[in-house]
Amino acid sequence: MDAQTPPVTLDDIEAAAERIKDRVRRTPCLRTRFIREPASRSPLMLKLECLQVTGSFKARGANNALLGLGDDAVARGVVTASGGNHGIAVAYAARASGTTATIYLPEIVSAAAVEKLKRWDADVVIEGAVWDDANRAALAHADRDGLAYIHPFADPAVIAGQGTVGREMLKQSSDIDVILVAIGGGGLISGIATAAKAMKPDVRVIGVEPVGAPTLTRSLAAGEVTTLDGIDTGAVTLAPRRSAEINFDIIRRDVDDIVLVDDDEMRAAARWLWFEMSLGVELAGAAGVAALMSGRVDVPEDAVVAAVVCGAGNDGFA
Questions:
Q1: Could you give phi then psi for residue 270, rounded to 5 degrees?
Q2: Among 117, 139, 215, 233, which residue's Cβ finds the most Cβ atoms within 10 Å?
């Protein structure tokens, strides 16, 4: 691959969609009608990945990555590090493939995520204060035991799997003008932006990060991947201290803007999603709607906006 060849293409995303079609759900892209208090003056749609298998979009990337491994690698088992959702997705993919998964988690992970992992038969290891600490331990484990490691956001196969979200959205509603996507490490927005810009070049893709974890905002401002000194947000699935070159390059090329929202704004959006749409979502799942409700992102009144509701949960009410 030369320097001009993108690491993930629409063809990769189309191939991923075919590969994972018997492992994941085609989630609704729902117009927010019949509600009491609209979140925006613009028409709003919600891509309901909170209804995905295991409760988040992560099932797409995890299954695409695991299904791309050779039989011997699958048989030996897989390992990863996660803030919760990616680990659950890898555990599901491993169980569906008849193999084992070891998931490293930071101390800040929710008890509900740990319980869900165990129900999917994963081996759970708590390591370090934040995801970056858990990830170092997972990499060491994979190297020591010769296991396949599935990165939550910096793997082309994972990005292609996540890109099927954007592909589905524009197939479901080709009139979408703006897509709002929460950013953690950047795997989801990398995939969605790749698909969306290839299918509809004039669509705007806007990322949303927590004020307390502006990982890509800081990196873009610096012109290179940087590491945050610390994390200060309850949205733990959006809180790696560092992204990766592959995500940074795609985001710099295909994402139109990134805005920041604070935890209170995400909680307010999570409450709106519950009371108006009967959806129980984690803070990360409410980030896109929070950007609209708080006025952090400004869109024309006639623009069709779609927010990816990326994960289920109840921490929006914490």
A1: -65, -40
A2: 215
Please state, in angstroms and as integers, the Cα–Cα distance from residue 77 to each residue in 98, 229, 293, following that order: 9, 33, 43
Strands 101-105 and 305-309 turn out to be: unpaired
What's this model's pTM, rounded to 2 decimal places? 0.95
CA distance 163 to 127: 30
What digits encode the pLDDT tens for the residues 69-95? 999 999 999 999 998 899 999 999 999
Phi-psi region of 58 (alpha: psi -120 to 50; beta: other; left: phi over 0): alpha
- Which of 199, 117, 191, 196 lies closest to 159 in space, CA to CA? 191
Domains, the chain: 10-56+155-317 (3.40.50.1100), 58-149 (3.40.50.1100)
Q: Say if residues 119 and 87 touch (Cβ distance below 8 Å).
A: no
